[in-house]
Amino acid sequence: MNILHVNATDISGGAARAAYRIYRSLVEHGATHGLESQMRVINRQSDDPSVIGGGIQQSRLWSRIHPRLTALICRGFRTGNPVLHSFAWPSSGLGTDLSMRFQRGECDLVHLHWIGFSTLSIEEIGRLPMPLVWTLHDQWAFCGAEHYTSPPLPGETASSDERFAKGYSPASRPAHEAGPDLNRRTWLRKQRTWRRPAGKPMQLVCPSHWLADCARRSTLMGDWPIKVIPNPIDLNVWAPCDQAQARALLGLPADRPLVLFGAMGGTTDPRKGADLLLEALQRLRTQVAGTPLERLELVVFGQSRPAQPPDLGFPIHYSGRLHDDLSLRLLYTAADVFVIPSRQDNLPNTGLEAHACGTPVVAFRTGGLVDIVDDRITGALAEPFDPGSLAAAIRWVLEDPQRRRQLGAAARQRAERLWDPARVAGFYAEVYGEALERAAQKSSSTFPLR
Predict the structure, then answer these.
(1) What pTM value is reported for the model?
(2) What is the rounded distance in angstroms from the CA atom of residue 304 to the CA atom of residue 12?
(3) Do 410 and 427 belong to one domain?
């Protein structure tokens, strides 16, 4: 069985890295299940020869035209939701390329990943003739143009913006939006194209139970087949190493408790909850005065040092954007705890990486984070979105060195048990087989033998 994975890029961004890790797990372990895989991307950035790069219409001309078309579509549209919005129009030409590969017998099934923005249009997805499996890396597939609903507001424990469950009726439009209702228009295009009578529901895969629950509650995809399969992680690349040596190599203090925080966009993305972490650390500072934890220091990656860094009473080390796995592995190992204070998240790579490196994780009990942290076993979960509860969880991990080491050992064991690439590849092999069988059944029922 030949599988063609499709993503916007191969290694740029969290969703791309997750998609590439799924792809590599199938390259390395798929033969056991009779699978061969290739990856097709618009923007190839790795040197992996099995990744097919380049677009059909992604020329310099297209690169200039597409942003202008997007700006034209968005004219007058205003939203308080800061996440990326993808209208997935006009067609890129990639759909024609994929269809031709299927007709030539180069693939039996297409596995879609993150395809918003300019990878495939909504209409191109609807026209694809082959069996489809789609791993959702965010909420875009069943939402309008937004890749995530608005994050929870202060005082909320979950987002109140759930138009995906209400069919994007005009009455469900949130107060923070104005102008043309582009989210509704985008959702209606998906409904028309993906639910047409001749169409067939594709197989959905969600890396977290939270995202699967959202998809099942959605008006668009609630009755589609959905499986939960976690993302894999290379347990040889991401593995514990000597903490003292890691700190020495990174120039971090050898004898201070270190709290690590990191995210693409650093402290600028409200979904990542940096403000909640800063408030938690300010509370923690007063709680640990006169104890060994008053020597605590914070390490931030994903952002360079700002012109006016916050005053926490703790020293802050900024590592900037790191582009190699070794540096990140050293950072995870150097830290005593890794904090993910996100208001919304699917199954962040950073949590899997930290656990694989034997580092306890503290996070809010929300989204896909509960799939990563086994509370009080591999880290600690705080009540959403309470900075005081987050501070208490961080302190609980740090205040007992022996317990912290036990948490780290259990974190590594959890990574080995749940996110092993061979295990994940086996789950996908089952999904591919079911998708092909379902397609064959539909074909025979549409064209019965006489």
Answers:
(1) 0.93
(2) 18
(3) no
